[in-house]
Design goal:
eight-stranded mixed sheet, binds S-adenosylmethionine, 343 residues, single chain, 15% strand, alpha/beta, globular, DNA polymerase, domain 1
């Protein structure tokens, strides 16, 4: 995880002003997705349009999705420039098969996902993802539904501990959730700094700590509020439905919880599970994907130097076979049972 959890970096000009963002591992994404003229690819995480622009640049058509209405609004300039080659949809990538079907009757040649929050979202204090600057305790990528403040102010001790401990990978989760519940007796949490300050006071900060003590808890709340792990699992299964034989699925992740999901998916779908050499061959599921490279691809040393946020990026990809999609079964992912309350 990068210090602030973002996957897109700002390129800073000579006077320190942001110029443009640099999409993470763009060369590696293009090499594995290999878009060509006349093909149709789906970019499930449009963001600032970095991947989409590059795919359009190769002559392919793009169906792009983002759940953030701001990304869709800003992306209209690229839609206008694309001369009908880009269709930009406000929605969630967990529905990418339905969205693709609505946009085109053909199956897809490629699906790319760049998981996480964009620097555009992080940099705006009013979106409430960051505690570098104070902002409302929000963290909703879609700008609707249950906010981080709703969770912090209402969830019980067990839920808070699991969100912070499992999704934030914070060892001192129970102490933090107890402190939140005690503080709630006299105050309502409304701002990012208010929560970050309480966490720092509760678990302390050693001079040798590389990251702020609230970083992990904030990651947990963000993943929970946006149901990011569930979204990723659903998107992988949806991509299996939407890709044509020979179509490529490329996923870039930024922390181990997400990478583990993608790894499990490819292990399951490339025939790495479900069979045993002691059982008759008939029980072994035919692979729905093949992988040229089994391990994760990471950013080059040069990219990591220019863009520190790419240091934690892992890219995994596979090629769809002609075997029919499997029945939807989320148990292969072993997700924690952490459902968001109703808004
Ligand atoms: C890291 S950014 C993508 C950056 C993009 N690759 C680029 O080059 O500009 C991730 C984007 O995905 C969007 N996103 C995250 N989860 C999503 C979901 N479940 N469905 C649709 N969009 C999602 C976020 O709103 C954000 O804009």
């Amino acid at each position: 995880m990068s210090k602030d959890g973002s996957n897109v970096t700002d390129n800073v000009d000579a006077v320190g002003g942001p110029v443009a963002h640099i999409p993470v591992m763009l060369n590696e994404v293009l090499a594995s997705l290999s878009p060509t003229s006349g093909e149709t690819h789906l970019d499930g995480t449009f963001g600032a349009g970095g991947y989409t622009s590059a795919i359009l640049g190769k002559g392919a058509n793009v169906i792009a999705i983002d759940r953030d209405p701001d990304a869709i609004e800003i992306g209209q300039a690229l839609v206008a420039k694309s001369e009908g080659k880009l269709s930009l949809v406000h929605g969630r990538f967990s529905n990418l098969d339905d969205i693709a079907l609505e946009a085109s009757s053909e199956k897809l040649d490629g699906v790319v996902l760049d998981i996480g929050v964009s620097s555009m979202q992080l940099d705006q204090a009013e979106r409430g993802f960051s505690f570098q600057k104070d902002g409302p305790l929000d963290m909703r990528m879609a700008q609707s539904g249950v906010s981080a403040a709703d969770v912090v102010n209402n969830a019980d001790h067990s839920t808070l501990t699991r969100v912070i401990g499992i999704l934030g990978e914070e060892k001192k989760a129970s102490r933090i959730s107890r402190a939140i519940i005690d503080a709630r007796l006299s105050q309502t949490f409304t701002s990012t700094l208010q929560l970050a300050t309480l966490i720092e006071k509760t678990i302390g900060r050693r001079p040798t700590d590389r990251i702020h003590p609230a970083t992990r808890s904030f990651q947990g709340f963000r993943i929970f509020v946006n149901q990011e792990l569930q979204e990723l699992c659903d998107a992988l299964l949806a991509a299996e439905n939407a890709l044509k034989p020979g179509g490529r699925l490329v996923v870039v992740t930024f922390h181990s919880l997400e990478d583990r999901i993608v790894k499990k998916f490819f292990a399951d779908r490339t025939g790495g599970s479900g069979g045993s050499r002691h059982l008759p061959e008939i029980t072994i599921a035919k692979p729905n994907f093949s992988q040229i490279k089994r391990g994760a691809v990471t950013a080059s040393k040069e990219e990591c130097e220019i863009n520190p946020r790419s240091r934690s990026a892992k890219l995994r990809w596979g090629v769809r076979s002609d075997v029919a999609p499997r029945k939807k079964d989320l148990s292969i992912f072993g997700l924690p049972n952490l459902k968001l309350m109703e808004s």
